[in-house]
Amino acid sequence: MDPEFLLIKKMKKGDEESFEIFIRKYYGDILAYCGHHCGDRQYAEDIAQETFLRFFAGLSRYSHRGKAKNYLYTVAGNLCRDFYRKKRELPQDDLPKKGEGLTGPGEADPEKDRLMSLKEAVDRLPPELKDAVILRYFQDLKIKDTAKALGITTSLAKYRLEKAKKQLKDFMEKEDAL
After folding, report:
1. pLDDT digits over 139-150, tens only?
2. pLDDT at residue 73 above 70?
3. What are the residues whose beta carbons fall under 8 Å from the beta carbon of 73, sequence distance 6 or more?
4. What is the pTM of this model?
5. 8 A C-beta contact, residue 176 and residue 113
6. What's the distance, Cα to Cα, between the start and end of the chain in Å?
7. Residue 33, Cβ neighbours under 10 Å: how many?
8. If 0-12 CB within 10 Å is exposed, 13-18 middle and 19+ buried, where does residue 147 land?
């Protein structure tokens, strides 16, 4: 029998140890996913914790159909989208500009600049493409698991990933031309 199914069954019966096992099993992946979305460690931790709180609050209604991790990604993705809505309402003056960061004034680090450009490119993707990229490449999910987490077909997940790669390539080529 599926070990995850048994773990969830124990959680539904109120077994405290099973809750701890579940959190230890998935917290790191969910935190990393949230971190890729919002870029702020504190917000990422808050969103990850809220993801688990919401999962546990609805546990009695949860019907196990595969991987709970995919469901957690869905909840986390919704919370991250809420974070984006709130973030747009906040002033952006205090955010570091391109080229600012860990290096001092006048110091150049081409590798960090390239990574910052890639992060900016990923952040500029439409939400449905960004989610697919984060799940597939940053969370290292298989395409079928990415599709399940997003609630879409495998072929649509492949399409979104190809479209995202093309947009990222175009953006990075424009950056290189500057």
Report:
1. 888 999 898 888
2. yes
3. 30, 33, 135, 139, 141, 149
4. 0.65
5. no
6. 57
7. 26
8. buried
